[in-house]
Amino acid sequence: MALAAGEPLEDARQSFAAGRYAEAEQQALQAAEASPSGAALYLIGLSRFRTGRPEEALEALDAAGRAPDAPEPDAWNFNRGACLYALGRFEEAEQAFASVHPEAPLARVAWINAGFAAFDAGAPERAARWAERATPGASAQEAVQLEELRALLVPVGALGDEEYRQGLAAFDAGRFDEARAHFLRAAALMPDAGRARLMAGASAYRLGALTEAREDLASSLALTLSPLDRSTAHQYLDLLSHGLRSSGPGLWVSASLGPGFDSNVLQVGVAARDVSGASADVVTASAFAEASVGITARFRVADSVLAALSYGGSQRAYSESSVRDYSLQLHRATAAVEWEAARDVRVGLLAGGDLFFTGLADFRGLQASVGANAWLAWDESDRTSTRLDLGLVGKDGLGEEFAYLSGPRLDATLSQEWRLGVANLTAWYRYRQDRIGTLEQSVTSADETVASQTYVIPFAFASHGAGASGRWQPLPWLTASLEAEVEWRRYLEDSSLRVRTTAGDTETWNARRRHDTRFVLAPTLGFRLSRHLRLTARYELLVNRSNVDMRLTDDDPAACEGAEHLCHAYDSTNGNYEKHGVMLQLEAAW
Question: Could you report the per-residue pLDDT of 362-403, keeping only the tens digit for each?
C-alpha cells in the first residue's frame, strides 16, 4: 500500500514508517478524536490493512474519501483496490485500480494489479489487455510482475502437459522451488516448449539461484518462444548480466543545473595551464554555475550483443573576472558495443570524441579528441568481475594558442569489481602515457643582462595510478559514493628557462625533469526526490606535490649563480597546490 502525504500526524506517521502498525493505528485514532480529518482516517486504514484487517481498513479508507480533506485520489484508489482484492471483491478492485490516473507514479503497478483482479474475476481477456497496457516502459521489477500475470494467461491446454499447469499454480502461490521442479519436468516432456524452460528460469531467479536462472533463460532463447516471451527472457537475462547489458535497452534523457565553488580554477582538468609569473594578488578561487544535458540510447543487436549511443554536453561558467577565461564547455559523443562472447566473458569496444571550448566573452576552441577503448571482462562469479581496458586517444589543440595540447594518449587499466548487495566496490591500476606537446611562454626579466627569456614547459608525461571507488545505497532514495586515486606522474622531457643575453648568447637555465604525485578524493551524496528528480552534492579534493615550484628553497643558494642556474627561483610554475571543489546539482531524468 502507498502512504500519501497529508496533514502532520507525526507520531503516527513515524510509527507507520518504522513498521509499528498497531501503534500507528492507535495514535491516528487519538489524532482523529482530537481533530477529525481525512488524513487521520487514511492512516488508520493503511495501518489496519498492514495488520491483516482489510474489511476494517476499507471502512476507514471510504470514510477518509468522504472527508473535506480527502486524500490524494491516485494513492487512495490504489489502496482501496488492495483492500477490495484482499476481500475477494475482484471486479470492484479492478475498477479501483483502473481509477488511478495514467500519469500517476503508481499507474503501471495499478494496471498490473488490475490485470490480476480481472483474471481472478474470471475475465482473462481484460487481464490480457491490462498486461498489454502496462508492458511499454515497464521497469525491471514491473517486468517480473508482468511475467507472472502473463503466465496465468497461457492457454495451458495448448502446451499439453499437466506439469506446466501445476508449475503455474505453484509459481502464482509463491512456491518457486516447487514451481521450478514442475517446469523442468514439463521442459523434459516437451523439448521444444521454450516457455517451460523460461518459467523454470523465472522460478530460479525468484529463488536466488542466479546461475541456474541464467542457464535456463539462455536455453529458452534457443527454443520456440513468442516475441513477447522472447522479450521477457531478455529482460530477465539483463537483470542477471553485468556491464552494458545490465541496464537493458531503452532511451534515457537527462538535464542538470547547479552552483559550485572551485578554490583553484587555474588548475583545470583538461590539461595543466601555465601560471608562470602569476602574481600572488591574482584571485584563483571562484564560484561557478554548471548546466548539462545528456541522452543515451541502448538497443539489442543480437541475443548476446548490446549497443549504446550517447551524447553529453556541459557548460561551466566562473563568476570571478580573473578566471572567467577558464570557463569550460564540453561536448562528448560515444558509440559502444558489448558482446557476451562466452558464458562469463564480455568483450567491448567504445569509440567517441570530445570537443572542448574555453572562455565566455572570448569564447574559442580549446581541444578536440577522438579515440577508442576496448575491454575484456571476466565475470568470475555473480559478485565479482575482472576487467582489462586499453584506450588510445588522439588530441588536437585548437588554434596556435593551444597547440601544446596536441598529441596521443595511451591508457591501460586493470580493475576488479565486487558487488556486495547494496554496495559496489571497484579497485583499479592504470598506466598512462600522455604525449601532448610543449608550451613556450615568454616573460619579462628584471635582469639587465637578459634580453629575453622563455619558459620551456613540456606537458607530456607517463604515469602509474591506483585507486578505488565505492557506491552504497542504504535506502531506496539515498546513494553515497566515494572515489580515491593516487597518481605518480613523471614528465618525459626537462622543463627549462631559455635565456638570450644582451651579448647575443642563448643559454639553457634550470633544466629539471619534473615529477608529481597527485591525490584525488571525491565523496558524493545523491538524494532521489521523485521518480524523475535527483539532488546530488559532491566534494572533490586534489592535492599535487611536485619538485617544480618557484616557492621552494634550495640547499645551496649559490646554485642560482652557477652556469646551469639550477634553482627553484627559475621554475616555471608553483607545482605544489591543493584544489577544493564543491557542487550541488539538481538533475531531471527520463
Answer: 999 999 999 999 999 999 988 899 999 999 999 999 988 999
Q: Three-state DSSP class for 203?
A: helix
What domains are there in the chain, each with its CATH number?
A: 10-243 (1.25.40.10), 244-589 (2.40.160.40)
pTM over cut 0.85:
no
- Helical ranges in 154-252 per DSSP H: 156-159, 162-172, 176-189, 194-207, 210-221, 227-239
What length does the chain have? 590
Distance CA 265, CA 397 (A): 20
Q: How far is CA 416 from each of CA 344, 383, 413, 427, rounded to the nearest angstrom? A: 15, 11, 10, 5
513-525 confidence digits (pLDDT tens): 999 999 999 999 9
Range 271-294 burial, b when 16+ CB lie within 10 A, else e? bbbbbbeeeeeeebbbebebebeb
Quote the strand ranges of 285-383, DSSP E. Answer: 286-302, 305-318, 328-342, 345-358, 364-378
Grid coordinates representing 546? Answer: 611536485
Rounded CA separation 171/342 (Å): 30
Distance CA 189, CA 186 (A): 5
